[in-house]
């Protein structure tokens, strides 16, 4: 039985994730080695060593989660503590949290930092997928099947927005929107949800207008409109230079000029700019194809899964990876204003990598159940007669 389960895992998906993580580790070293010495007074491999530790921890967690039956996540014994812990974690930031990047988003744990909002992304996916899967028999009854789960979503988005971290709040909102669209509810209820969302969003914007429309955030819009002419366009203009210098083959691994103090946050938000500069189109294509495969494979798993909970989990996780990757890449290339979002599996960051590893572990488990049921249930339902020869004499199946 255990051997059959192991054979059913999606090893191609796992291999792509592993390759991206290893590639990301190399690029974290390349992009951060100068900054680690000049700005932090550490050895050149400081961030590399920390990310390597993050990667080993995340790999262990991924394996454990991949072996854990995803259907157990529907249990109230898991859902209820998960919801309360996420709310307590976000609320606790206002008491013992640490400011980084102008947002109160971090807990200091020894020499490391933990960002609760990263794990809330996955918490929202699991919660909404479980609740809407259970409510399938009456999914189109607005008061009973549609509205109740949104209280949790609104609360966590508000707690993240007031940190203020509008980028993460927007990502969680968009992830939730994909799960809602995929849940099977009709367009009438989706339209109602949109109106309710606007009625909640407008008062929040008015209440937090000083934080939302602060000089720094308005500066990001100025930089978006005119990066080379705005005094706030330093990051984006240097990102453009870095993206343009690589060409087809790049300057060579470790040869980036922009990482020498011109481009800030090179190992986190702007790591793709360094990849483009050092490895050119080939390096960028490797990352895009890898992330694209993970997202599309996740959607495929969601469509093949007959269990509503597993299907919504796969769609939610794939959407999270796709949305976050798009926001990061669109920000550094000037398609949208910068938001300070990391690139999945590539950027430096323990919380992001650990959360993504848990998500991939869940996705692998859903995929395993889909493949296992398809393969072995089909054999059980269509047994080969004992009298049938080992090899078909005519070998004419499908040729008639």
TrEMBL record:
It comes from Bacillus mesophilum. The chain crosses the membrane at residues 12-41, 53-70, 82-107, 113-133, 145-162, 168-185, 190-208, 279-300, 312-336, 348-370. Signal peptide: none annotated. Its EC number is 2.4.99.28. Its main location: membrane. It is an enzyme of class 2 (transferase). Keywords: Cell shape, Glycosyltransferase, Membrane, Peptidoglycan synthesis, Transferase, Transmembrane, Transmembrane helix. This is Probable peptidoglycan glycosyltransferase FtsW. The keyword NADP does not apply. The keyword Glycosyltransferase applies. One of its GO terms (biological process) is regulation of cell shape. Belongs to the SEDS family. FtsW subfamily. Peptidoglycan polymerase that is essential for cell division. It comes from the Bacteria. GO terms for molecular function: lipid-linked peptidoglycan transporter activity; peptidoglycan glycosyltransferase activity. InterPro entries: Cell_cycle_FtsW-rel_CS (IPR018365), FtsW/RodA (IPR001182). It is found in: Membrane. GO terms for cellular component: cell division site; plasma membrane.
